[in-house]
Write a structure and sequence with these properties.
With 960 residues, the protein is α/β, with parallel strands linked by helices. It is built from 31 helices and 26 strands. The strands form eight sheets. Strands 5, 6, 7, 8, 9, 12, 13, 14, 17 and 18 form a ten-stranded mixed beta sheet that branches. It has a three-stranded antiparallel beta sheet with strand order 15-16-24. A three-stranded antiparallel beta sheet has the order 19-20-21.
């Protein structure tokens, strides 16, 4: 617990307030936290995914020995400030942490947060210790901006507002642009804008919010292309009773149809492709704000009224179930829209006297007032798991106090993109403490993610975190005053505190671990209510669960946010270059906790390394399989398992949860309806879904079927006097290949599968024959490939243009797929996709390939430099560019990793299995086929909450 004492610092002539009396958590008096750490120098070299050239290089950077190569690379490339190669460039983690923590400490002293100088030193040392030991991390804007000459923006999440006026709409465009430029995301509710079914004062018809979404989407796309820190992230919300709700629901699904049609026609529709800009509404997540009234109408099968924006009168009545079905169908087709449960959100609102909550940030975890912002910080839960597998409750409480204090200080010195956002944030001081590594913690302690025990642990930890945060907020209110808007919202704020405390009382514990955590949470809530009654609260909001994309990698977390493990194996970058695929280190710990002897643990780990799952692992009891269930793979967690985990933690959060409920490709529209309905019943605030491959595996439009039916009807009608016409058809003639012809043989690897392609040309140029070999003679695959080769070759000799085959086979998706060893074609969605891209590069002129979006590595590099690829002469050294060729781990690399990895490397030696880089990436690629490529480094991203994160460079598509 933290005490308060009388302070001597007065601000602005006001009476002196009590300052905080700090206590040490991890540090020792008279010893600087850096002095107890073993530091080492490393070289960070990042290569360009397009052509293998070096796009970042900084040698001699300094990090603790315990930090992984990946974490050090991400911090060096993303967070170190100053031009590379200049004396101003940061080169040590110490400099980065000192830059940030120094501002926090100085500001806290200036504004009377501490009782004395010793308390300020403790605050400074404890923050530095926690950050360099990866116990918690601030969100990315803190690392980008604090302590630099840039504006001190500390918030990652923003909510805007827009009214039914053209000036307000144009101001919305401008404000979003400023936020995107700074690398953050924003959300907005457009429900105040009149629908396209209502009249303007001039007598004309209004455009409607969907039309204005088009302009905002184009603006976001332009700023993203301009090279912001990360891709523009935004959320657009529309109330379910808006007259344009159906158009809003179907907007992105229609655009996905356009993407598929244009891609099949040969246009470059890949992420970042030159033709993707013609597709609209792709820069935002869409969510429908549903009310309890609407959801009850869905349950009963009743009607629901759509209301005019200005008068509030019902102008149209719809079938609630039919509208709900359209929402689920659109989400089934393209993952949008998500849902936000309006009445639940506002029932837990601490400041309703100021205004309703109408929107959220892009990832849906921050829900509060319009024109406000929230800075985030996340705790690494695995750092609190003791050797005896008990949870370090006492230190978790102390660290939470420390983080809340620091986060509140940041609002005092922060800059904001607009004055309105600054005013609201300073008046209500919204914070967003959360955590990462929950999935790893549960597995390590032998708890299945989708189990009563797992949910009890998660609920208890979340309750303890929020109870401690608000208790600390009440202490801060006693030391430096409550938030400015507290007086008018005191009663509703205290009502919400009682709701949290009541939910904590209702929490049912299962085992000793969660029982101890819950007991401390109960004490924290009791103290919170007492102090809040006396002092009020310093912060209108305290907690939420963010995706923790980049900062999760910075802390070397196995899992992000509230997510379970993605898979049982992961990548480990080596100091000397390359990577290894290793079994997650939480697995041996979980097996030990479950009572397995060391010999059996080693056998099970070896089996997992080979098969990537636990089914039929030697000696592993079936009742323990569920402990190792992951988000994807052989034993994927059921969709409702994700929903139930969200429901277990939601009552203990001020905000909401960034999480996408993943469904298999076989999921139906009914399944999505059920998820949305259960989310409402279980008290969630927001929910998003994603069906595997939904963005490429949507059903064909009804147009084709309609034409078939029309043709059938016509055929049934027999003309009275049929007219017989004789039509002469010019039959194609086969141009056979000569006995001697030039040919090229290409050896290739796609997703670890090797093959050979021999392409023969006519002497006067022009491809005429292709033969493929991928298996032993006599096998089924060899026979199929021979038959395919003959069919393609005969077609070429009969005059079928090569570009026709390109349009049919490029982007075809099936296994094997993934990384290749071809520097010109780094990723392929199938063997056929690779083969015909290679043929296009070898046999088609630049102009024809460009129309199909197929470029060589040298041509892509020229585009990056702003040169004309058409004028480029191909003089590429393929061996020098073959950065994607499989790299076996060198013995000296492994030894070096053991030397630098410390206890982690020694403990995981039995779990490490060296595999080629291509195979390593492929093992995850099969589970994230629809994830976008990173705009920075080109690596396939992986899910992190409702967003995506790149494990290669740390870039995210949303909050971090």
């Amino acid at each position: 617990m933290t005490e308060t004492a009388s302070g001597s610092v007065a601000r602005g002539g006001k009476r002196p307030r009590k300052g905080l009396k700090m206590k040490r958590i991890f540090t020792k008096p008279g010893v600087h936290p850096y002095d107890e750490i073993a530091w080492e120098r490393r070289d960070v070299v990042m290569t360009n995914w397009r052509d293998g050239s070096i796009n970042f290089e900084q040698r001699g950077v300094e990090f603790p020995e315990s930090w992984s190569v990946n974490a050090a690379n991400i911090v060096t490339t993303k967070y170190f400030r100053g031009a590379v190669g200049t004396p101003q460039r940061e080169w040590s983690l110490k400099q980065l942490v000192d830059r940030v923590v120094g501002v926090y400490t100085r500001t806290a002293i200036e504004h009377g947060y501490f009782a004395g100088d010793e308390d300020a030193e403790i605050f400074d040392h404890e923050l530095k210790y926690a950050l360099v030991h990866q116990i918690f991390a601030f969100n990315s804007p803190v690392w980008f901006n604090v302590g630099t000459k840039s504006p001190q923006q500390v918030s990652a999440c923003f909510i805007l507002s827009v009214d039914d006026q053209m000036e307000s709409i144009l101001e919305w465009y401008k404000e979003e642009g400023v936020i995107f430029k700074g690398g953050s995301g924003s959300g907005v509710n457009l429900s105040r804008i009149r629908s396209s079914k209502e009249l303007l004062s001039s007598g004309g018809t209004a455009s409607g919010p969907v039309s204005f979404m088009r302009g905002a989407d184009a603006s976001a796309g332009t700023i993203k292309s301009g090279g912001a820190t990360r891709r523009a992230a935004k959320m657009v919300v529309l109330d379910v009773d808006h007259p344009d709700i159906e158009e809003f629901i179907e907007t992105k699904a229609r655009e996905e149809d356009k993407v598929r049609a244009l891609r099949d026609a040969g246009f470059d529709m890949d992420l970042g492709g030159k033709d993707i800009v013609s597709v609209q509404y792709q820069n935002a997540n869409n969510s429908v704000r549903v009310s309890d009234e609407f959801m009850r109408a869905v349950e009963k099968g009743g009607e629901f009224g759509l209301r005019a924006r200005l008068t509030g009168e019902v102008i149209e009545t719809v079938d609630a179930r039919e509208l709900f079905r359209k929402m689920a169908k659109a989400a089934w087709e393209c993952a949008d829209p998500g849902v936000q449960y309006d009445d639940t959100i506002n029932d837990w609102h601490t400041t309703p006297e100021t205004g309703r909550i109408t929107a959220s940030n892009p990832c849906s975890e921050y829900v509060h007032l319009d024109n406000s912002s929230c800075n985030l910080a996340s705790i690494n839960l695995l750092k609190f798991l003791k050797d005896d597998n008990s949870f370090d409750v006492a230190n978790f409480v102390k660290l939470t106090e420390l983080i809340i204090t620091a986060m509140d200080v940041s609002i005092t010195f922060a800059d904001f993109p607009t004055e309105k956002i600054g005013e609201t944030t300073r008046a209500y001081r919204q914070l967003g403490i959360g955590y990462a590594n929950l999935g790893a913690l549960l597995m390590a302690t032998g708890h299945a993610y989708d189990s009563d025990g797992g949910r009890a642990v998660a609920g208890a930890i979340t309750s303890l975190m929020t109870g401690t945060s608000y208790r600390r907020s009440a202490e801060l209110a006693g030391a430096v005053g409550p938030y400015d808007g507290y007086a008018r919202n005191a009663e509703p704020h205290k009502r919400v505190m009682r709701k949290h405390a009541a939910a904590n009382d209702d929490l049912r514990t299962i085992g000793s671990m969660d029982a101890k955590i819950h007991a401390e949470a109960s004490r924290q809530w009791s103290e919170c209510l007492k102090l809040g009654e006396k002092n009020g609260y310093r912060n209108a909001q305290a907690s939420l669960l963010a995706p923790t994309g980049t900062i999760g990698l910075m802390m070397d977390c196995d899992t992000t946010g509230i997510e379970p493990d993605l898979a049982l194996v992961k990548f480990k970058k080596l100091v000397g270059g390359g990577s290894m695929q290793i079994v997650n280190q939480t697995i041996p710990r979980a097996l030990k906790q479950l009572g397995y002897p060391q010999e059996q643990i080693e056998a099970i780990v070896e089996y997992i390394a080979e098969h990537s799952h636990v089914v039929d692992a030697p000696g592993l009891r079936q009742e323990h399989y569920e402990v190792f269930d992951c988000a994807m793979g052989e034993r994927a967690i059921a969709p409702m398992g994700h929903v139930r985990m969200m429901a277990a933690t939601q009552p203990f959060l001020s905000g909401a949860i960034s999480k996408t409920v993943n469904l298999p490709e076989s999921a139906t529209i009914d399944d999505i309806e059920q998820v949305y309905l259960e989310g409402w019943k279980l008290g969630l605030k927001a929910l998003a879904v994603y069906r595997d491959n939904c963005k490429v595996g949507q059903p064909l439009s009804a147009g084709t079927g309609a034409k078939k039916d029309e043709a059938k009807d016509t055929a049934d009608v027999v003309p009275a006097e049929p007219e017989v016409k004789v039509i002469e058809v010019n039959r194609p003639t086969r141009r056979r290949m000569p006995n001697q012809r030039p040919s090229t043989t290409t050896r290739f690897t796609v997703g670890g599968a090797k093959g050979y392609m021999t392409a023969s040309s006519y002497p006067d140029d022009g491809l005429g024959e292709v033969f493929l070999k991928m298996s032993k003679q006599g096998s089924t695959l060899a026979g199929v490939m021979d038959a395919f080769s003959v069919a393609i070759s005969i077609g070429l000799q009969y005059g079928v243009p090569l570009e026709t085959y390109m349009s049919k086979f490029v982007n075809m998706r099936f296994e094997p797929a993934g990384m290749t060893d071809d520097p010109d074609i780094r990723m392929a969605t199938s063997v056929m996709d690779y083969i015909f891209r290679r043929l296009a590069l070898d046999h088609l002129p630049y102009d024809e390939r460009a129309a199909l979006g197929i470029f060589s590595a040298a041509e892509r590099a020229a585009q990056q430099r702003g040169e004309d690829p058409a004028a480029l002469q191909e003089t590429v050294d393929r061996e020098a560019l073959a950065q994607s060729a499989p790299i076996e781990a060198k013995p000296e690399d492994a030894q070096s990793e053991d030397r630098t990895g410390g206890a982690e490397a020694q403990a995981g030696r039995a779990a490490e299995v060296a595999k080629p880089s291509a195979m390593t990436l492929e093992s995850h690629q099969r589970f994230t086929a629809d994830a976008p490529l990173c705009m920075t480094c080109g690596t396939k991203m992986r899910p992190a909450g409702s967003c995506y994160v790149c494990e290669g460079c740390g870039s995210t598509s949303g909050c971090s």
